[in-house]
Each structure stands twice: as structure tokens, then as C-alpha cells.
């Protein structure tokens, strides 16, 4: 395997990866900088107390309102739950959803497949190129957060922070794999991308609200159910089995996508 | 070994029968023209030959490899070049970067030489390219690994005339080195210029498979004659004359029936349809040529002796006999009854197929 497609696609993703990393890093810095204010004033205020008791409990959990009392709580409950896992997950699913369908639609796939290269390789290496934004952002973001925390003198548990990012990789890959599957099963690139956004957001809401119902176990279909930043950052609980499950799901989804792409007509 | 073979190759997209039972062979070292109007099914065949899609039924081989055998096709593509109709290149990389990418995938033994011949602006982003520049890049990419067979889907569209000529010359040189070309086109003059044999496809069916020479022979001669005295169109209703038009004669826009049922096989029941536009154009040419006498022009496929003995009965001021343009020959194929409706043999079907055929060309 020469990884030519991966190298090229990865290079194409590099600019976006750097932009994304910068955005996440800035956001992380903003959260760290605001931490003293929020933890000291807002989270302890009477109105906030009242608000969290009045809102439905799943809602409070979904948006991490219960953990605003500490810097790591703020980071885990807001930054890592919403921005990192939800938005980054959606971004990756969206990008992956375009990776095959858009190339087919714009005839780029014809040019690529006129070279002596297997379709299986194309799918696999295009998927692998998602690692460029994932790895870049996973290195830059925690590093900048750690530095910012040291600078404003806020304690953020570094080991947990590193673990969080490591464990988020299977989760993010799984989100990308969902997008990839949509990319080969839906004909239209825009449809695939929109479906990716919709599906990921729906899964997020689903796993937030379903647990309080009788069929709470259904929440396990959502990748977010197997990666919880709060558990890692606040309690130091690492769901390694969940990460393994996400990796397994990724392998299955990529395999199914590959199988489909190898057999489909490219029009 | 034939470079390309197809055997009963059929491709349906749902209800759309894009290719129907195509059987032909492209010999090693020839330039094969694949001719047909837009929507005839040319690209469908090419996509099947490239292994982008599987045939509904039938089979095809490229360089001896079955197009449905994925592993074999990867091997075939080491020796196969492709110039796509729609040039899907990444818009936000430079030509140079994209060429390096392609080189990493399929090798590069002659891009430098090709870039001297066709010189797309390699340092610019492809998104800024004109169609002509994209086409040049596509040609470079198709030939850079020095393939044995090159499949081209309307490769000259977007190229300026000078570059087209350079491209034709390039193909002739490459053919002399033993390369094979499968060349789809709806432009007949280029097929006439560079192809050895032609397959004509219409509505997914292969309607003709000929040497270009034979096709031209069957097309006959275009005869333009200016005679001193006024003549009637009927006077030229001799055997083998089609599409007779007389300058200034309003009726020339109507079909001539002189040849109607006498022609053999493929060309039967045609002759008439294209004459309206064609005849009118010829009339203009003729009348602008000179005011004296009467200009008569027609396509002639009969015995030349008959033609000449007919002509000597007139006082001839000017005479021009040339190969009928392939356009005219081509029009005959598209003037035909749709092969699918032919069996139904209903008058309305025939009438309907006519304008459609014309509109396509």
C-alpha cells in the first residue's frame, strides 16, 4: 500500500485542519479564561440554581448545566460535550459525507479511477485522510488549553485531558464513518451532507433524552453514548470498552461502505 | 489481440436503454471513431469500458481484460489512458500538484515532453483554467504513463482549432508508434481526419461499423453544377441523385423523392430529411457564387457514367464534384427510422423520429 490517495487527500485537508484547530484552541482558551468568572459568579448564583432545578433533568444534562461549578466541569460539560464531540463530530460526518458522493458528482472520481487503483483503496484512504483534522486538532487543542490554564492559574487535570482526547479519537472516527456510509449510499452529495448533519444532531438529542424513558437502552446506538467527557474529566472514569465499541463500529461502517462502493455504478 | 472487444454489450439505467446489444472490436493500432449525437449512448459505452459501471448484460474486454473483473481492470489501467468528457480535476490545487498526484498513482514517463506540446499553465490553480486549458491538462494526464490504448470521450471539445490540429497530429504520431485509440465524437470532420474505422451509435444501437473510406464511398459525391439555361429540379431526378436543390427554386426546400425506395439497407428512406436545411444553405452558396445560369447541387451515389452522360446534355458553366461531407453521410443514419420503432413500422413513429434525429445533430 503506497497511501498515495491518503497523502494527497490529507494534504487537501490540512488547511481546514489548521483552521479548525485554531478555532478549537481559541474556544478552549475562552472557556478557560471565563472559568473563574463562571464558576465563581454564575454557577453559584441563586437564579442559576433555580434555573437548573426548573429545567427538565435531561435538558440540564444534555447541555452540561450541572457541572458549571468548576473549570474542568465547564470544559467537559460545555466545550467538550458541545463543541468537541457534537460539532467536531458533525463536521467530520459532513466532510466524510462529501468525500465519495461529491467526487462522483463532480466527475473527479472518474479521473481518479482511471488510474490503476482499487476502489477499496480509494474508500479506505479517503477515510483515513480524516485523521489529519482529527489528529491535528487533538494535539493543538489540549496543548493550548493546558498553556492557557497555567497562564490564568486555573487547574485542569492534564492526565484526564490527554485521556479525553485519546478516547475521543475512536468517537470522532465513528462519526466520520457514519458520514462515509451516507456518502456511498446516497446519490447526491448535498443530500448526503445534510443527512450527516441531521443524523448526528438527532443521535445527540436522542441519547440525551431517551435514557429517562422505558427504552433507555436504545441510547446505545448513538456514538455519543460511548464517549462522555464529563466522566473522563470530572471523575477520571475512562470508558475503554466504549472506545473499543466505537472503533469496532467504525470498522464495520467503513467495511460496509467499501463493499458498496466497489460494487456500485459510478455515474 | 484486439484492444477492445464488446459482445452483446447492454446497459440499462432503469427504464433507459442507454446501450443495446453492442458488438464490435477495436483492433490494435487503429484509431477507432465512435460517432453519435449527444445522448446516443457513447459515454455509457466508455464508462462501461473503463470499468466505472457494470454492463446489464453482455461482455467487454479492454486490452484483453474483462471489464467486470476488478483486479484485471487495475492491471489494464496501467496501460490505458483516459480523456474524460467532463474533466473532474480538483479546482483548488495547481496543475503541477495534480499532475504529481496522478504521477504517483500511475507513473510518469513523458509528461515533460507532453507539456511542451500542450502547455496548460501548470503553476496556476485548476479552478482558474479555461476549458481549453483543462483539456490540455487532461491530454497530458492521459498520455503521461505512455499507455498502449487511449479512450477519449469527445477529447477536442474546448480546444482551439490550432490546438485541435496539433492534437490530431499528435494522435497520428502516436498511432505510428503502435498506439490504439478509441475516440468518441459528434464532430464528423475530425473523425474523417484521423479515424481508420467508425462505429456509428444511435439511440444506444450500433447502426454502422465501417472504414471511414467505405463510409465516404457510400456517402458518394457532392455535385454542384451551374448550367446556362434554367432547369427544373425534376430534370435531375436521375438514379443515384439525392437531395437535389436548384438555386432560387423555392421548392428545393422540399424533399426530393427521386431516390426514395431505391437505396439499399441502411440508407433507405432517408436522403430527404436533411435536405431542407442543407439545401437552403447550398442555395445561398450557389447564388452568391454568380448570377448567371442556374445552380444545381445534389449528392450522387450512382454510376458516374450515368451522371456524366446526363451532364453533357447541358451547357455547363461550372462544375464541382467532391466527396460528400461526412455530415451528409451521417445525416442519413440519423434520418433513419428509429431501430426500436422500426419493428412497429407505424407511420407516426417514423414521422416523430425525424425531427428528433435532426435536432440531435
First-to-last CA distance of chain B: 34 Å
Could you say which overall geometry of chain B the principal axes of the C-alpha atoms support? elongated
Measured as a percent range, the helix fraction of chain B is 25-40%
* Overall shape of chain A: globular
**CATH fold topology of the largest domain in chain B:** Rossmann fold
GO molecular function (chain A): ABC-type transporter activity
Keywords (chain A): Membrane, Transmembrane, Transmembrane helix
Protein name (chain A): ABC transporter permease
Transmembrane segments (chain A): 82-101, 127-151, 163-185, 197-217, 237-256
Architecture blueprint of SSEs:
The complex is a heterodimer of chains A (267) and B (361).
Chain A: H1 4-42, H2 46-54, H3 57-62, H4 71-105, H5 108-113, H6 119-128, H7 131-152, H8 158-185, H9 189-209, H10 229-235, H11 240-263
Helix pairs in contact in A: 1-4, 1-6, 1-7, 4-8, 4-9, 4-10, 6-11, 7-8, 8-9, 8-10, 8-11
Chain B: E1 4-13, E2 16-26, E3 31-35, H1 42-49, E4 57-62, E5 65-66, H2 70-77, E6 80-83, H3 95-106, H4 111-117, H5 131-143, E7 149-153, H6 161-176, E8 180-185, H7 188-194, E9 197-202, E10 205-211, H8 212-219, E11 221-227, E12 241-246, H9 275-289, E13 294-300, H10 304-311, E14 316-323, H11 326-335, H12 339-342, H13 347-360
Keywords:
heterodimer, A: 267 residues, 11 helices, B: Rossmann fold, 2 domains, 6-stranded mixed β-sheet, 13 helices, 36% helix, 25% strand, elongated, disordered C terminus
Question: What can you tell me about this protein's structure?
Answer:
Chain B: Pfam families: ABC_tran. Chain B: This is ABC transporter. In chain A, 78% of the residues lie in helices and 0% in strands. With 267 residues, chain A is mostly helical. Chain A has one domain. In chain A, helix 8 runs parallel beside helix 11. Chain A starts with a helix and ends with a helix. Chain B is an alpha/beta fold and 361 residues long. Chain B folds into two domains: 213 residues, P-loop containing nucleotide triphosphate hydrolases (Rossmann fold, 3-Layer(aba) Sandwich); 103 residues, no CATH class. Helices cover 36% and strands 25% of the residues of chain B. In chain B, strand 7, helix 6 and strand 8 form a beta-alpha-beta unit. Chain B is elongated. The C terminus of chain B is likely disordered. Classes of the chains: A mainly alpha (267), B alpha/beta (361).
Amino acid at each position: 500500500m503506497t497511501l498515495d490517495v491518503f497523502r494527497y487527500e490529507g494534504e487537501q485537508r490540512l488547511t481546514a485542519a489548521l483552521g479548525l484547530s485554531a478555532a478549537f484552541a481559541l474556544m478552549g482558551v475562552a472557556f478557560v479564561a471565563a472559568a473563574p468568572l463562571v464558576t465563581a459568579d454564575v454557577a453559584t448564583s441563586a437564579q442559576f440554581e433555580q434555573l437548573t432545578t426548573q429545567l427538565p433533568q435531561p435538558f440540564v444534562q444534555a447541555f452540561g448545566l450541572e457541572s458549571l461549578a468548576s473549570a474542568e466541569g465547564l470544559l467537559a460539560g460545555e466545550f467538550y460535550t458541545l463543541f468537541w464531540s457534537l460539532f467536531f463530530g458533525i463536521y467530520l460526518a459532513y466532510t466524510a459525507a462529501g468525500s465519495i458522493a461529491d467526487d462522483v458528482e463532480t466527475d473527479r472520481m472518474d479521473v481518479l479511477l482511471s488510474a490503476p487503483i482499487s476502489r477499496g483503496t480509494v474508500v479506505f484512504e479517503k477515510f483515513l485522510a480524516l485523521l489529519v483534522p482529527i489528529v491535528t486538532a487533538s494535539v493543538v487543542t489540549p496543548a493550548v488549553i493546558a498553556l492557557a490554564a497555567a497562564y490564568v492559574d486555573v487547574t485542569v487535570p492534564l492526565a484526564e485531558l490527554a485521556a479525553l482526547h485519546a478516547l475521543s479519537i475512536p468517537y470522532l472516527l465513528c462519526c466520520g464513518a457514519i458520514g462515509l456510509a451516507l456518502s456511498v449510499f446516497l446519490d447526491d452529495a448535498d443530500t448526503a451532507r445534510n443527512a450527516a448533519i441531521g443524523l448526528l444532531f438527532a443521535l445527540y438529542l436522542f441519547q440525551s433524552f431517551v435514557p429517562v424513558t422505558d427504552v433507555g437502552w436504545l441510547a446505545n446506538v448513538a456514538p455519543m453514548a460511548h464517549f462522555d467527557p464529563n466522566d473522563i474529566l470530572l471523575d477520571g472514569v475512562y470508558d475503554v470498552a466504549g472506545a473499543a465499541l466505537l472503533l469496532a463500529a467504525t470498522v464495520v461502517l467503513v467495511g460496509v461502505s467499501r463493499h458498496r462502493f466497489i460494487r456500485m455504478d459510478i455515474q | 489481440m484486439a484492444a477492445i472487444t464488446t459482445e452483446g454489450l447492454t446497459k440499462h439505467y432503469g427504464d433507459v436503454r442507454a446501450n443495446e446489444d453492442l458488438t464490435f472490436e477495436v483492433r490494435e493500432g487503429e484509431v477507432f471513431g465512435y460517432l453519435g449525437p449527444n445522448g446516443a449512448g457513447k459515454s455509457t459505452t466508455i464508462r462501461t469500458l473503463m470499468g466505472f459501471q457494470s454492463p446489464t448484460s453482455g461482455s467487454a474486454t479492454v486490452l484483453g481484460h474483462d471489464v467486470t473483473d476488478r483486479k484485471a481492470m487495475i492491471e489494464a489501467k496501467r496501460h490505458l489512458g483516459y480523456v474524460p468528457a467532463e474533466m473532474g480535476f480538483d479546482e483548488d490545487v495547481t496543475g503541477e500538484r495534480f499532475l504529481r498526484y496522478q504521477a504517483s498513482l500511475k507513473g510518469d514517463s513523458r509528461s515533460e515532453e507532453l507539456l511542451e506540446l500542450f502547455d496548460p499553465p501548470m503553476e496556476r490553480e485548476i479552478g482558474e483554467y479555461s476549458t481549453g486549458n483543462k483539456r490540455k491538462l487532461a491530454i497530458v494526464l492521459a498520455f503521461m504513463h505512455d499507455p498502449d490504448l487511449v479512450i477519449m470521450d469527445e477529447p477536442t471539445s474546448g480546444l482551439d482549432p490550432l490546438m485541435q490540429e496539433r492534437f490530431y497530429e499528435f494522435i497520428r504520431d502516436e498511432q505510428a508508434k503502435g498506439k490504439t485509440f478509441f475516440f468518441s465524437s459528434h464532430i464528423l470532420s475530425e473523425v474523417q481526419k484521423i479515424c481508420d474505422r467508425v462505429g456509428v451509435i444511435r439511440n444506444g444501437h450500433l447502426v454502422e461499423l465501417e472504414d471511414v473510406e467505405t463510409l465516404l464511398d457510400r456517402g458518394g459525391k457532392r455535385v454542384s453544377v451551374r448550367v446556362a439555361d434554367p432547369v427544373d429540379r425534376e430534370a435531375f431526378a436521375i438514379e443515384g441523385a439525392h437531395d437535389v436543390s436548384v438555386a432560387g427554386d423555392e421548392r428545393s426546400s422540399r424533399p426530393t423523392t427521386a431516390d426514395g425506395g431505391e437505396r439499399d439497407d441502411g440508407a433507405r428512406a432517408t436522403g430527404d430529411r436533411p435536405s431542407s436545411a442543407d439545401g437552403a444553405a447550398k442555395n445561398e452558396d450557389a447564388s452568391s457564387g454568380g448570377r448567371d445560369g442556374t445552380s444545381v447541387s445534389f449528392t450522387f451515389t450512382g454510376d458516374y457514367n450515368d451522371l456524366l452522360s446526363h451532364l453533357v446534355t447541358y451547357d455547363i458553366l461550372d462544375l464541382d464534384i467532391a466527396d460528400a461531407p461526412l455530415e451528409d453521410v451521417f445525416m442519413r443514419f440519423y434520418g433513419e427510422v428509429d431501430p426500436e420503432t422500426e419493428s412497429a413500422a407505424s407511420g407516426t413513429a417514423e414521422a416523430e423520429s425525424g425531427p428528433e434525429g435532426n435536432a440531435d445533430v
